[in-house]
Write a structure and sequence with these properties.
The chain has 253 residues and is of the alpha+beta class. The chain has nine helices and eight strands.
C-alpha cells in the first residue's frame, strides 16, 4: 500500500538548504501631507501662491512632468513604450533589457513605459452656497491617469548582465496630483550582489541560489537587508529620473 505524502514531505527530498530572505517587494511612495484635501489646499496656497481652492493649477505641473519624462528619454536615448491593455510588461521589459545588456552597460535605465491605470486623485467640483453662488470644492476620488515606469538596472538590486531572466527594479510615478509612486525591488538580487559575498561562493542560476559554501554567511547577508537599502535606492534614482516636484517643493518638505 502506498501512503499519501504531504507537500512538505515531497519538497524535503529536493531541498539542498534553507535560507530566509526578502523576495519581491512592491512598496507605496507618497507625500503624507498631500493625501487629503486640506493638505492639497495648503500646497496650492502656500507653495504655488494661489488663493483659489482648485486643482486646475496642478495641470501645469502634470504637463511639465510629462514633458520632462519625454525629454529625459530622448536625451538619454532610452526606449519608450506605451503599454497596451493586457500586455505583459515584464515581457516587453526583458526584450529591452537584453538589448541593454548586449550593449555592455551594467547600470542605467533600459526602458521607460507608460500605462493608463486607475489611481487615487483629487478633482474640483462646483458647489453652491445657500444664496446660490457657486464655489470650488476639492474632493478625493479615483481616475485613469498615465503612470510612468522607470526600469532601473542598479548596482545593488540587479539584474546580473549574464542572467537574462532576472528583472530590474522599477519606480512607477503617477502623472497626476498627488503623484503617487511605487517601488518594485527584489531582495534576492540585493543579497546576490558580489560586493556582499566577499570570499564566499554562492551559485546563483537566475532567481535562485542553488548552492552555498557558507550558509551562515549567506543568512547574515540576507539579514542585513533593511529599509535603509530601499531608501538609498529610491534617493539615488529619483536624483536621476524626472519627478513632479521641484527643488523648492523638496525644501518645503
Amino acid at each position: 500500500m502506498t501512503l499519501p505524502r504531504t507537500v512538505a514531505e515531497v519538497l524535503s527530498d529536493h531541498v539542498a538548504f534553507e535560507v530566509e530572505c526578502i523576495d519581491r517587494m512592491y512598496l507605496n511612495v507618497y507625500v503624507p501631507q498631500l493625501q487629503y484635501a486640506g493638505g492639497l489646499l495648503g500646497y496650492v496656497q502656500r507653495q504655488l501662491g494661489l488663493p483659489i481652492a482648485s486643482t486646475a493649477p496642478l495641470a501645469r505641473i502634470t504637463d511639465r512632468f510629462a514633458t520632462s519624462v519625454h525629454r529625459f528619454a530622448g536625451s538619454q536615448g532610452i526606449p519608450w513604450v506605451d503599454f497596451a491593455r493586457g500586455q505583459r510588461k515584464d515581457d516587453v521589459m526583458h526584450e529591452h533589457l537584453a538589448a541593454f545588456q548586449a550593449s555592455g552597460r551594467t547600470e542605467g535605465v533600459p526602458l521607460i513605459g507608460r500605462a493608463q491605470e486607475k489611481t487615487s486623485l483629487f478633482r474640483t467640483e462646483k458647489r453652491r452656497d445657500r444664496d446660490g453662488r457657486s464655489y470650488p470644492w476639492i474632493v478625493k476620488t479615483t481616475g485613469m491617469v498615465n503612470q510612468f515606469y522607470f526600469y532601473c538596472v542598479d548596482d545593488d538590486f540587479g539584474p546580473y548582465a549574464d542572467i537574462g531572466i532576472s528583472a530590474p527594479a522599477f519606480i512607477k510615478v503617477g502623472a497626476y496630483f498627488p503623484y503617487p509612486a511605487k517601488i518594485w525591488v527584489n531582495g534576492h538580487e540585493w543579497a546576490k550582489r558580489p560586493s556582499r559575498q566577499g570570499r564566499h561562493r554562492f551559485h546563483r542560476p537566475g532567481q535562485r541560489l542553488r548552492s552555498c559554501d557558507d550558509l551562515s554567511a549567506l543568512q547574515a547577508i540576507c539579514d542585513r537587508f533593511s529599509p535603509h537599502d530601499i531608501q538609498a535606492f529610491f534617493d539615488r534614482w529619483t536624483a536621476v529620473i524626472p519627478t513632479p516636484f521641484t527643488d523648492l517643493d523638496r525644501q518645503a518638505g
